[in-house]
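Each letter names a residue; structure tokens follow underneath. Both lines appear below:
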Amino acid sequence: MFAYLIRRAMYAIPILIGVNLLTFVLFFVVNSPDDVARMQIGVKRATPEAIERWKLERGYDKPMFINTEATGSARFSETIFFDKSLRMFALDFGRADDGRDIGQEIRDRMGPSLAIALPTFILSLGVSISFALLLVFFRATYLDFWGVVLCVAMMSISSLFYIIGGQWLVSKLWALVPISGYASGLDAGRFLILPVMISVLAGIGSSARWYRTIFLEEISKDYVRTARAKGLSELAVLFRHVLRNALIPILTGVVVVIPLLFMGSLLVESFFAIPGLGSYTIDAINAQDFAVVRAMVFIGSVLYIIGLILTDLSYTLVDPRVSLQ
């Protein structure tokens, strides 16, 4: 297993370099350092002297990839690509275009993002799987039919509807919880209840329908008929056999959510004014702060690769037939 982890980590390095390089090229093809400086300073005040001073203060005055005026390793280290992109491999994210420390901002905002993402992840998984098992237990009945109709209807509704509708109904009309904002400590609970509820509700439709499809595929296999022939009840068959054998495709889908646990929900955090990583990314996009956006793209890539490795490892726990070589 250790050799497998080392091998996967080695595979991840060129992938991250490629993502980093592609992100860097895309950002600087769309906007040159002069364009970035002009947007940050303001078009009316962006004199050539002000642009050059802004670039010098933030390290954008260097060549892109190769510094022909330097010698030795400085030809590559004294460049914008090394300073702004390659240093992220050492978790040195530098400073945002407005001067703030990106690493410190990430550390400060990770807590609120996790406070929403972890309860949402756990509740969504439990509710969706339970609802899907209920539909499978009553398969080919009216309950199953209308359950699928409900799932499709919930899938068809935009997340914005849940957010705006939830804020109007629960916060404005019923006045049960604050409509937006955030507080530290135990007071954060009253600000998190509504975002978590809405996030769970918005994801039930697609998740439950997908899990139902997986369970229906498993329940038609030979081992299920054998279990029934041995006298096991339908509940025992569902929970002891079908659910366990369906864990591999479930785990495969869960890995997609792992980066969101740390990066936060862009829409939910923005609409509820929660100072997490999701709202941080949205604010950076609106301000065209490419330093922050590049850092968040890099973190998302790292987390996704870690999630893939953890998923492969979890396969060995739920299915002894799977081996890591």
